[in-house]
Write a structure and sequence with these properties.
CATH superfamily of the largest domain: ATPase, nucleotide binding domain
CATH architecture of the largest domain: 2-Layer Sandwich
Number of domains: 2
Strand order of the largest sheet: 3-2-1-4-8
Helix content: 25-40%
Largest sheet: 5 strands, mixed
Strand content: 15-25%
Distance between the termini: 17 Å
Order of helices and strands: EEEHEEEEHEHEEEHHHHHEHEH
CATH class of the largest domain: Alpha Beta
Radius of gyration: 20 Å
Length: 316
């Protein structure tokens, strides 16, 4: 039996799974990356965890034929990481070569949202579609474009960086250092920032009561939960967010014309109260033909999407 390892590596935590040749996720876990201790320490820790998982599940590590890794940063030729988002590691490191030296197993890389897109397309919400775009709506906004069996990563690994499309000239500052990015308006970070600015001048609402007046405790989930209860203040924020989501997704539809848009991440879990508004507003931002038979779906694999997508890299 052949086995493949999928690794979704983050600056704080890394998720690891082992799949069989049929694509079944046999076992998975999450460990602290401890990226502050350096790239070699982290990669050795990850591989040692893989060996422990294999032993616990009676998998002969000699039958592991490939390792796939999702990395938060631009990846070139499925080997080199241009830079690491939230990692204290050097630029342009050949992570593939380093992991192969440690494990003696062929290793391929891609951007973390790209592997989420691959996982959802093959195993999850995008199954059966040949043209899909996955948008991860979390602390930031990431994107993965899957067209006719291939991930689109671009010449230097930044293909699919949907979150950094510019929606507003000289607009709000984004974490990337530029202004007016999609991410600055429709990510969880952008939503919270907008809500706090409004709460500073209006405290007579359900949202302020829900967080007991402590703005430091505010999460995007609070806003959506209160909106579902009918709190007008929160509903106004949802309307604001859905406008920018529709604008950003509309731009993607006009550029890529996918069959399905898959939304993942915490913001997507808001559900219909957000998505219904986005669907209605899309008509203002995209060409009519881009909406024909278009499906907008919530990701189905949750935290396993990155693991399963990464493992698929190693099978190719």
């Amino acid at each position: 039996m052949k086995y493949f390892v999928g690794i979704d590596i983050g600056g704080t935590n890394s998720k690891i799974g082992i799949l069989n040749g049929k694509g079944d996720l046999l076992t998975n876990t999450s460990i602290k990356t401890e990226s502050i201790k350096g790239v070699d320490f982290s990669l050795n820790k990850i591989w040692n965890t893989v060996l422990e998982m294999a032993q616990e599940n009676n998998i002969d590590f000699k039958n592991i034929e490939g390792i796939g890794m999702g990395i938060p940063g631009p990846v070139i030729n499925q080997e080199i990481v241009g830079f690491f988002a939230n990692f204290p590691w050097e630029r342009n490191i050949n992570i593939s070569k380093k992991m192969e030296n440690i494990s003696k197993v062929k290793t391929k890389l891609d951007n973390d949202v790209n592997v989420i897109a691959l996982g959802e397309t093959i195993f999850g919400a995008g199954k059966g579609f040949s043209k899909s775009v996955t948008i991860a709506l979390g602390t930031g906004i990431g994107g993965g474009i899957f067209i006719d069996g291939k991930l689109i990563s671009g010449a230097n690994g930044v293909g699919g960086e949907i979150g950094h499309m510019k929606l507003v000239q000289n607009g709000k500052l984004c974490g990337c250092g530029q202004k007016g990015c999609f991410e600055a308006y429709a990510s969880a970070t952008g939503i919270i920032r907008e809500a706090i600015s409004r709460l500073m001048i209006n405290k007579n609402n359900g949202l302020y009561e829900a967080i007991h007046g402590d703005l430091n405790k505010l999460e995007a989930k609070h806003i959506f939960d209160e909106a579902k209860k009918g709190d007008k203040f929160s509903l106004d924020i949802v309307d604001y967010v859905s406008e920018y989501l529709a604008m950003g997704i509309g731009n993607v539809l006009n550029l890529i014309n996918p069959e399905v848009v898959i939304l993942s991440g915490g913001v997507a879990l808001a559900g219909d109260i957000l998505l219904d508004s986005v669907r209605e507003k899309l008509k203002k931002y995209t060409l009519d033909n881009a909406l024909i038979d278009l499906q907008i779906k919530i990701g189905e694999l949750g935290n396993n999407a990155g693991i399963m997508g990464a493992a698929l890299l190693s099978e190719k």
